[in-house]
Amino acid sequence: MKDTQTGAPPRVPFSTHPSRYKHWKLEIDGPVAWLKMDVSEDEGLRPDYKLKMNSYDLAVDIELDDAVTRLRFEHPEVAVVCIESLNDRIFCAGANIFMLSTSTHTHKVNFCKFTNETRVNIEEATAKSFQKYVASLNGAAAGGGYELALACDEIHLVDDRSSAVSLPEVPLLGVLPGTGGLTRLVDKRRVRRDLADAFCTIAEGAKARKALEWGLVDFVHPKSSYAEAVRDRVKELAGKGNAAQGVELDDVAPQMDGDTLRFKYLTLELTPGERMARLTITGPTAEDARIPADASSLGAGWYALRMWRELRRAILELRFNYPEIGLVTFHTEGDPKDVLALDEALEAHKDDWFVRETLLQQGRTLKMIDVTARTFFAIITPGSCFAGSLFELVLAADRAYMLDDPDRDNTIALSAMNAGRFPMAHGLTRLENRFYGSPESVGRVLARRGEALEPETAKELGLVTDALDDIDWDDEIRIILEERRSLSPDALTGMEANLRFVGPETMESRIYARLSAWQNWIFTRPNAVGERGALTSYGKPHSPEFDWSRV
Amino acid sequence: MKDTQTGAPPRVPFSTHPSRYKHWKLEIDGPVAWLKMDVSEDEGLRPDYKLKMNSYDLAVDIELDDAVTRLRFEHPEVAVVCIESLNDRIFCAGANIFMLSTSTHTHKVNFCKFTNETRVNIEEATAKSFQKYVASLNGAAAGGGYELALACDEIHLVDDRSSAVSLPEVPLLGVLPGTGGLTRLVDKRRVRRDLADAFCTIAEGAKARKALEWGLVDFVHPKSSYAEAVRDRVKELAGKGNAAQGVELDDVAPQMDGDTLRFKYLTLELTPGERMARLTITGPTAEDARIPADASSLGAGWYALRMWRELRRAILELRFNYPEIGLVTFHTEGDPKDVLALDEALEAHKDDWFVRETLLQQGRTLKMIDVTARTFFAIITPGSCFAGSLFELVLAADRAYMLDDPDRDNTIALSAMNAGRFPMAHGLTRLENRFYGSPESVGRVLARRGEALEPETAKELGLVTDALDDIDWDDEIRIILEERRSLSPDALTGMEANLRFVGPETMESRIYARLSAWQNWIFTRPNAVGERGALTSYGKPHSPEFDWSRV
C-alpha cells in the first residue's frame, strides 16, 4: 500500500477540537453561535499550496464538520448558527485551486464527498436539530464559498458595490460547482434553469441587486448597517434558544497497532496484501439500554453514540488513508437481545434531545456507508449480533452471507429501527430499498421484528444473500472474497453506486449521483486536468487549450 | 473539424429500410411481428472489427431503432413484437468489444446514448402504442443482449442446460452494463440489490432455473417445446391485434450543400470555424391543421410528423457527424397562429392512432434534445413562430433571447401542448421543470395560452431568459455566443446535464444520469481503457492490470 509504506500523501488527521482550530473561530452567544472563517494560509493539509483568501482544503473542512457536529451535541441551546468571515472583503474563495490541481483524482473525489456530506449535515441540523444556519456574506463568496452559503437556510449579502456571489468553476476552471452548487441552485433555491445557466458561466457572478433579483440570496443590506442588520435578524430567528445542557464529545481516534486500528467498540484489521479489511463491532451490553430521565448524563462514552462515531471515523480512515483497501467485511460480536433492548430504549426516548442527536448520528454514519466507494460484505456467524440498528449494516452491505451450522445458534433480528428511523439519502428505508416496489415484502419481514431469525428463515425472507452450510463455509467465503477483490475497482465503484440506490431520488441523492458522477468524469478529462487543461492552467501564464469535441 | 476534413471516423449513415437491413429480419404475421437478429459479421460501421456471435455496433442498432419506429407507424395492426435470434445458440453477445475498445470516447458515449434511447423507445411502444415487446432468448444473451431483453415487457429463456443470461461487463471488461442494465435490474425487474450485485459479477451469468428464481427472466421452456411455447404465448398476447392501416415512412435524409444540411422543413447551417450551428425550422401552414377523419391519409409527409423526424435526424447528425459543433441556435420562421391551429387540431384528434404516434414522435424528439451534449440557445426574432409545440424548443434550450423592437411584432405563445403532452424523461413537463416547486407560476403562464406574448411580458412571465433592445441586439447576441463557445466543452456538458433536469428522477432519467455519468467516467479510466485496462486487454494474451485505488 503506497500510503502506509511511503508516507506520502500525508496521513489525513481527523481529530480536532475548537480549542485547536486553525481556520475557524466558534463563539457562542446564548442561543446564537458565530462560526467565523479565518483560514490560515500555511496550515493546509500539505505545505505546497497557500490557502489564500479564505480558500479551503480538507483541513479547513474537517474543522467545519467538527464544529457542525459539536454544536449539535455540545450546544443544543443554540438555535441559530451564523457563518461569516473574519476577512472583511472575502467571505470565502472556495476550494483552493492549487490544492485541487495538484491532488490525485482519488483525493479530489473523496474531498468533494466529504465537503458534500458536511453541507448535507448543515441542512440536517436545520431540519432535525432546530439549529438554523444563516450565511452572512460580508464579502465575496465564490465557488465553494457560495456553495457553503447554499447549504444554509438563509443567505445575507453585503451591498457594497463590489461583493458578489459567484460560481466561476465552469468559466475559470473547466470543472463543475460540484459541492452541491448546480443542484441546490435549481432544486433548493429554485433559480430558473436558464438563469442558473447564465449565472454559472459568468465568472464575476452577481452583486447584491441582481443576486436578490435572481433568488441567489435572501437579503441584502448596505455596508453601513450590514453587521447590525444581520445581528438583529439572527437574534430574532434565535428567540430564546433551545433549553438543554450539552454533552462534550471526546476524541474517538483509534490506537494504531501495526495494520490494526483499535477503537473502544470496534476494530479495523487491514490486510493490505489482500486489499481487504475486517471491521468488527462489539455489541452493546444490557447496561447500555438503561436510559435515565436525563439521557445526556450518559455522556459521549455511551455505546449508542460512541460506537457510531467510531464507525464514522473508521470509514473516513478507509476513504482517505487506505485507498487501496477495496473490500471490507462487517462482523459483530455480542448478544442480539442487547441490541434489541438498546434499540427499544432509544425508540422510547426518541424525543429526548440527546437521544434524538444520537439517532441522527447513527443515521448519518449509515448514509456514509451507502456512498463509500468500497465493497462491503456482511459476514454473519455464531456469536454475532446483527440485530435492529446493527442489522442496518447488513442492509447497507452489498451482500450478506450467513453461516448455517446446525450445532450453533446464529440468528439475526429486526427492530423498530429498521422501519423508518434511518432513511437513505434518496428517502427510502434500507428495507424499502431492498424490497423496492414490494411493500408487502417489507411488511412481511417487519411483522417478525424482535424474533430471532435462523439462517434458512433469513434467506427465505430475503434478508441475507445466502445461507451457507458449515461444511464448505470457509472455502466458499474465501472464494467469494477472492473473486470480488480481483475485479476492476472502478467498475465496482460504478456498479455499487447504481445498485445501492433503487427507485426515487432526492436533492441529496442527486448531489451524490448526477452531480458527483459528472464531476468525477470531468476530473479525469484532459480539458480540466491535462497539461493545458483549465484547472491546471489556472494562475499560469498560458491559456487553457481544449479538445473541442462534445461528448 | 476533424470529421469532415479527414473523413475519419467515417460519417455515420442513418437512413435505412427493412428491405436493406443487413442485421435484422422483420416479418409481420398478422398481429405479431418477428424481429430476428442475424448480424452480418462484416457489415459493421467500420471494417476493423467483426460482429461475431450477434454482437452489435451502431449500424446494428440503427436498424433496430428503424424497425421499432416503423412498426409503430407502418404496422399499427401489430400488437406484439417478438425479438429473437436466427443464430440458434446465441441470442446476442452484446455490444462488440473490439468496436468499444477501439472507439473514441466521444463515439462510445454517443453510441451508448443512442442504444439507451432505442431501449426506452421499445418501452414507450409497449406503454403508449399497444405494441408489447417480448424477448425470446433462444440462446445465450450476454451484456447488451440481455439489456435488450430487459427493455422488453417479458422475457423467455430456453432451458437447454447451456443458455444463460449474463451481464459480464464488470468481471470481463471493467465497465458497466451501461445500456440500462444496472438500473432496469433493480428498478424495473426489482431484482434484489444483493442478488443483482452477485449476478453482475458472475461472468457466466444464470441459466434457466436460477434466472427464473432470481427474477431475471419471466418464463423458461425446455428446448424441445421452446419454439412452440413462445409462439403460443405471443399469439395469446396479440389477440386480434389492433385495427388500423399503417403509413409508410419516407426517408428524411438531408441534402448536403457545403456546410449546410437542408431538409424539407428545416435547415442546419454549420459554421465549423466558430464551432456553431444555426438550426432554422419552418413553421406549418394553415393547411397542415386540417386533419381529415382518417388522419393517416395525411401520410408521412405531413408537417406535424415530417418536421419532427427531420429534427431528430438533425440531432443525430450533430451528435455523431459533427462532434466539435458545441453551440446550436434555434430559429423558427412562420406564423405563430398556424402552429397554434395545428396544435389544437392535434389535441382534438389525439385519440386517432396516427395523431397519437405523431405526438409521441414529437415528444421523443424533444427528449433527445434534453440529453444531447450541446448548448442550445433559442433566438426569438420577428417573423419567428415559437408557439405551442415549437415553444417546447425554447423550454428545452439552455437559454432564450428575444428581440424587443418597438417597430416590429415579435411574440411567443403557449398551447395545450405545453401543459402535459411532452413530459421530460424525469416525468415533469418542461414548464414544471422550469418553474420547479412553483405550480402557481405554471398556472399563471398556462392561463395565458393562445395569447400572443410580447417580449417584455414573456420576460416578466419567466418564459425567456432576457428580452434585449433592438439597438444593441446584434452585438449582445454576438458576445453571448462568443462567451459560450469559449468555455470548456466538458464542463458545459456536465453543467447542462445537471441544470436541465430539476427535481425528481424516474428510471428513465436515472439511466441517463446516474448510470450513464458513471459509465462515462469509467470509459475515461486507465483501468478500463488504458494499455493494460480490462476493456483493452479483452481477447489479448495478457491479463488486465489495475491501479487498485478505490475512488
Going by helix content, strand content and strand pairing, the class of chain A is alpha/beta
- Beta-strand residue percentage of chain A: 15-25%
How would you describe the oligomerization state of the chains in this entry?
A: homodimer
Largest sheet of chain A: 8 strands, mixed
How are the strands ordered across the major sheet of chain A? 13-14-15-16-17-18-19-20
Biggest interface, residues from each chain: A-B, 89 and 89 residues
Q: Determine the fraction of residues in helical runs of chain A and give it as a percent range.
A: 40-55%
Helical element count of chain A? Answer: 22
Low-confidence stretches of chain A: 1-8
- Gross morphology of chain A: globular
User: Could you give the distance between the termini of chain A?
Assistant: 35 Å
Rounded to an integer, what's the Rg of chain A over CA atoms?
24 Å
Number of β-strand runs of chain A: 20
Provide mean pLDDT of chain A, rounded: 96
